[in-house]
Amino acid sequence: MKFRRLGPNGPRVSAIGLGCMGMSQSYGQPDDEESTATLRRALDLGITFLDTADIYGPFTNEELVGRAIEGRRDEVFLATKCGLVPRSGTEGFPVDGSPEHIRQACDASLRRLGVRTIDLYYLHRVDPRTPIEESVRAMAALVKEGKVRYLGLSEVGPRTLRRAHKVHPITAVQSEYSLWTRDAEEAILPTCRELGVGFVPFSPLGRGFLSGTVRSLEGLPAEDFRRGVPRFGSENLGRNLDLIDRFSEVARARGCAPAQLALAWVLAQGDDIVPIPGTKRRKYLEENVVAVDLSLSTDDLARIEAAFPKGSAAGARYSLESMALVDR
Questions:
Q1: What are the tens digits of pLDDT across the range 240-283?
Q2: Is 56 a catalytic residue?
Q3: Tens of pLDDT along 25-37?
Q4: Candidate list 27, 56, 150, 284, residue with the active-site label
Q5: Residue 327's Cα: distance from chain center in Å?
Q6: Of 249, 124, 122, 258, nearest to 178 (Cα)?
Q7: Do 24 and 56 meet the contact criterion of CB atoms below 8 Å apart?
Q8: 108-147 burial, b for 16+ CB within 10 Å, e for fewer?
């Protein structure tokens, strides 16, 4: 396994991490036995960076990760998140970044994970009712108490990052980033580099689309998250399939799977980028890891760009409701 740093002076982690959300929700039925085997196989392969959140499940994903890493804590750089909260029926605001909630959420995550310290603690979404300075001060207090080592923010804009970074150093920003979601290149990624903040792309495989295996919604479970994502909708899917077909041809010519080429492309965008593709199956984990050793030439990158130009994806990456929670 190769390693990178989250920012020029940040912690050293495996060049590719493992996103754990799909083990407990969003993409079909959970399979705790296979997910546990996948987590342990990840450690065997040298993947140190595991990413979870209290809202995943909700709450059950942290418990799953905690059980899987028991006895191997020293092999893991463990990231989790707070701030997104389950709705109570149709009432309640889905984000809480108040200091009181952050303190309570951290203690609960530590219990579920079965650890004394969280390596990287993210605010999952910005709470518009709570100034970011107040949220980060509460998180910084957790660092002083030894409950957290480093702080992160998820789906934030550059102005929010700057404000937060003045209160306490932010080690990493997590945002969606892949060949078909390149918004980060406009502002937040340059800001991270200016401030020395690491960048952690989630969904680097476009929620499975860039693997070339999702051709329609028909085979997806009724509760699958992607059924509500505009890019998978009937009005957009055909245009996006044209893109993945062209991209798959480039992958075949390169002698690799589309998923491997898509991850290699993300890794090639900078040594400060550490993607966290998610899977609950060892088969796909082992396929994804190969991307770490897949070097792309200038010609390779040009062919990828020609097949999948920036801004060519059809449809929004989230529903209107979910986009409303993304800080700009």
A1: 999 999 999 999 999 999 999 999 999 999 999 999 999 999 99
A2: yes
A3: 988 889 999 999 9
A4: 56
A5: 16
A6: 258
A7: yes
A8: ebbebbebebbbbbbbbbbbeebbbeebbebbbbbbeeeb
